[in-house]
C-alpha cells in the first residue's frame, strides 16, 4: 500500500494518509482518522481499490414491481449511467437481471468509475440512484417495496362486520 491509496481492511475503508514503522494512519469517508497497527495488514485481507489504477467497477442494485417491462428497465438504467458524468463510457456499463425476488424483479447496473476516496465511490452511486429514480418516474416504472398477499383458508365463510366513524 501507498499513501493516497483507497483501502479496505476488515470493516475499515479509507484513504492512507501516513505509513509508519508500527502503524498506518487511515482517514475514513466520514473524516475520522484511524491508526491501524501494521500487523493488521498481515492478519486480515486487504483490498486496495487504487493500487494500480483508480478505475473500479461498481454497481447499483434496484428492484422494480412485477409486471414492469424488463427490457425498458434495462434501457432506463443504461440511460441513467450515460447521464452521470462520473461513470466512464469504457468499459461500457451493463445491466444484469439478477433475480425474481419475493417482492421485486431485481436488477444490477454495473459500471466503471474513477474513485480516489470513499466519498467518490458513494457519491457516484448516489448520483446514479437519483437519476434512476427520476428516469423510472418519467417512464412510469415503479420501484418495488415489500408487499404481502394474505390468503385466508377457512372451512366456513368468515363473518365480516363493517365499522365506520359514526357508530
Structural features:
single chain, 167 residues, alpha+beta, Alpha-Beta Plaits, 5-stranded antiparallel β-sheet, 3-stranded antiparallel β-sheet
How is the topology of this model organized?
Elements (H helix, E strand, L loop, with lengths): L5 E4 L2 E8 L3 E6 L4 E5 L2 H4 L2 E3 L6 E10 L5 H14 L10 E7 L4 E10 L3 H22 L28
Antiparallel strand pairs: 1-2, 1-5, 2-3, 3-4, 6-8, 7-8
Helix pairs in contact: 2-3
Explain this structure to me?
The chain is α+β, with helices and mostly antiparallel strands and 167 residues long. The protein folds into 2 domains: 6-48, SH3 type barrels (Roll); 55-139, Alpha-Beta Plaits (2-Layer Sandwich). 24% of the residues lie in helices and 32% in strands. The protein is built from 3 helices and 8 strands; from the N terminus they run ββββαββαββα. The strands form 2 sheets. A 5-stranded antiparallel beta sheet has the order 4-3-2-1-5. A 3-stranded antiparallel beta sheet has the order 6-8-7, covered by helices on one side. The longest helix has 22 residues, at 118-139. It is elongated and about 75 Å long. The N and C termini lie far apart (73 Å). The relative contact order is 0.17. The mean pLDDT is 91.
